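cron nightly-structures :: item 1 of 1
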Amino acid sequence: MSRYGSDLPEPPWVYSPGSVKSWLESTAPGARVRKSAGEREGEDYVKNVELLLDLDVEKTPVQPSSALLAWLRSRLGQERVEEHFELLPTAELLLRALHKAKFTNVLDITMGDEVLYHGPDRRYDIKDVVRQLAEQTPAHPGAQSIHLAVRLERRHSPTARVTIRRVHPQREHAIHVRFEGKLHKRLLQVFLNYLREHLQVEVTEG
C-alpha cells in the first residue's frame, strides 16, 4: 500500500522518462511517454558541411600590376577575377538565410583587418546586426571581402563561418560556407531554399 493509503502505485518522485513510463504502464496500460527533443530517434544530421556558392553575375579579369606577375599567375593557375555584386547586401542576405535556419548569435563580422561587429555574448542579436549591416553599406563601397561567424543557440550549437569575396582566383568561388559541428538536414535545406529564392546562385558541396 502507498503512503496515501491507495493500492495503486504512486507516481515516481524522480521524473525521469523511464520511471514515468513504468508508472504509466502500471496505472494505465498502453499509455506512452513522448520523448523529449533531445531523445528522439532517427533525427538526421550532417556534420562539418562545406558549401561553395557561385553567383550568376558579371565577372571581369583582374589585370596584374606587371607582366611578371601576370606570367606567374598564369603558370600557377591563379588568374584573378572580380565579380560585380554588392558585398554588404550579399552578406545581409546570407545572415537572413542563417536566421531563417534558426541561427541567432552573430559572433563576429570582419572586413579585412576591420572588425565591423563582435558580440559572442549576445545570444539573440542577428536581427539587430542585419539592420546595422544595411546601414553600413554606403560607407564601404569598394569592399572586396567579408567574413561572418554565426552560431545556432540550440542542440549541438553549430557555427556557420561564411567568407564572401568579390575578387578571388578564377578557379575559386565567391562564397564559402562552412557549418562547424552537427546541423539538422532540415535546417540546412531551409538555408539553401532561402538563398535560391533571393539570389541567382549555384551551390556545390565542398
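cron nightly-structures :: done
Residues 49 and 126 are 22 Å apart (CA to CA).
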